[in-house]
Amino acid sequence: MHLFIYEIIILCLMPFALAKILYRALINPTQLKYLNERFAFYSQDKKALWESRQTIWFHCVSVGETKAIFNLIVILLKRHPKTYFLISHGTLTGRNTKLPNSSRIHRTYLPYDTKRATKRFLFYFQPKMGLILETELWFNLINQCKLQKIPLHLINARLSRKSLSKYLSFREFSNAGLSQLNSIYVQSKEDLDNFRSLTESNIKIMGNIKFESTPPKGTRQKINQFKKKLKITNQFVLVAGSTRPGEEKLLLELVKKLNRKDLILVLAPRHPERFIEVEKIFKEQNLKIIRKSTLGKLKEVPKYILGDTMGELYEIYGIASLAVIGGSILDYGGQNPIEPMSLNIQTAVGPSVYNFKDLVSLAEKHNAIFRFNNIAQLDNIIKNLLNEGQVNQDILRNARQYIKKSSGGTNKIVRLVNQYL
């Protein structure tokens, strides 16, 4: 009965989901590409191919989850040369995120979570098993996997207290869905406790595989080229990655207040549809901001730079003297700080971290990151770094040790997949 009501709700929400895609398509027409996949309509010419293949399916909703499985897919491709890998996504940016170059990798959108669409999706691709990253809980999909006897595991799972409070309102329904999963592998003790408030399912701690995400091949060379193009030498470069509405203005005012000629601000908004909006902030103040996508030959070092390209955040973080994690300055829950830390870049995280609370708390405990509760504290962090020669070697050394100690989740997933091959 609960699943029937859920189905009705999903069907009622679908027009709004479509309207959102159509709205985004006004800015980026590629949003409409592969629209058929969102309803699980596929070319029947290739159905026989999928029936003959041994396929492992990963669902990675967006950029972070897709990057997280890069090394894992590399390992699995080598160990299982006859296996195909289906990677499903929920966003265009996720689908465009780079994965290993292989003819055995197929990308698709995950269909809307209706009973018929999820049934068509599974019947067409016929995966041997499925692995869902983080907390993408689609209950028709989970139910159909159970009915079709497809093992389904939730891996690298996280559940913040904020998200937990929402699921607790429908605890009986949530527990029924989660109990259909074969297993749940969480990132931390806090995630384990939160999931146990919802379900009696099999839950284990595996750590966070994002600790093992490494920059794509050639990233260091691209960073050096980018730095050379910008004519950066000894300047202090403040990079804010994955910023959200309201944060860019705060950072701009901070840089203006510091009033240092040797200070450069680079902003990389979380969502591409906001590039024009962020650029407008500077235009309204008669400030010149250079777009990375149209970077030409420069006569001098630019003061403000807009990171308006997708899939190049490593390259953008790589030129930083200090990386500030977007979504943590205002109440958006933060983003993953591992990317700049893995590049040996000093990293600062603001007060809002509920999406990565355990990860950030441990990093802070190990003195591996800078924390600030407001813009005034970030101001002091930057001033101290400028006065002390721009680099805090203790922070960098501690970050390297923290990442090394926190790794190991990838091997656990490899062992899990091996059970089905």
Topology:
Elements lengths: L1 H26 L19 H6 L1 E6 L3 H6 L1 H10 L3 E7 L2 H5 L8 E5 L5 H11 L3 E5 L5 H9 L4 E6 L3 H8 L2 H8 L4 E4 L2 H8 L6 E3 L13 H11 L6 E8 L3 H12 L4 E7 L5 H9 L5 E3 L12 E3 L6 H5 L4 E4 L12 H5 L4 E3 L7 H9 L4 E2 L3 H13 L5 H14 L2 H10 L3
Parallel strand pairs: 1-2, 1-4, 2-3, 4-5, 5-6, 6-7, 8-9, 8-12, 9-11, 10-11, 12-13, 13-14
Mean pLDDT: 92
Largest sheet report: 7 strands, parallel
CATH level 4 superfamily of the largest domain? 3-Deoxy-D-manno-octulosonic-acid transferase, N-terminal domain
CATH class of the largest domain: Alpha Beta
Task: Estimate the helix proportion, in percent.
Answer: 40-55%
Strand order of the largest sheet: 3-2-1-4-5-6-7
User: Care to count the β-strands?
Assistant: 14
Task: Explain the overall architecture.
With 421 residues, this protein is of the alpha/beta class. It folds into 2 domains: 33-214 and 408-418, 3-Layer(aba) Sandwich (Rossmann fold), CATH 3.40.50.11720; 219-406, 3-Layer(aba) Sandwich (Rossmann fold), CATH 3.40.50. Helix content is 44%, strand content 16%. The protein is built from 19 helices and 14 strands. It has helices at 2-27, 47-52, 63-68, 70-79, 92-96, 115-125, 139-147, 161-168, 171-178, 189-196, 219-229, 247-258, 275-283, 313-317, 338-342, 357-365, 375-387, 393-406, 409-418; strands at residues 54-59, 83-89, 105-109, 129-133, 152-157, 183-186, 203-205, 236-243, 263-269, 289-291, 304-306, 322-325, 347-349, 370-371. The chain has a 7-stranded parallel sheet with strand order 3-2-1-4-5-6-7, sandwiched between helices. It has a 7-stranded parallel sheet with strand order 10-11-9-8-12-13-14. Helix 4 packs parallel to helix 19, helix 6 crosses helix 7 and helix 12 packs across helix 17. The relative contact order is 0.10.
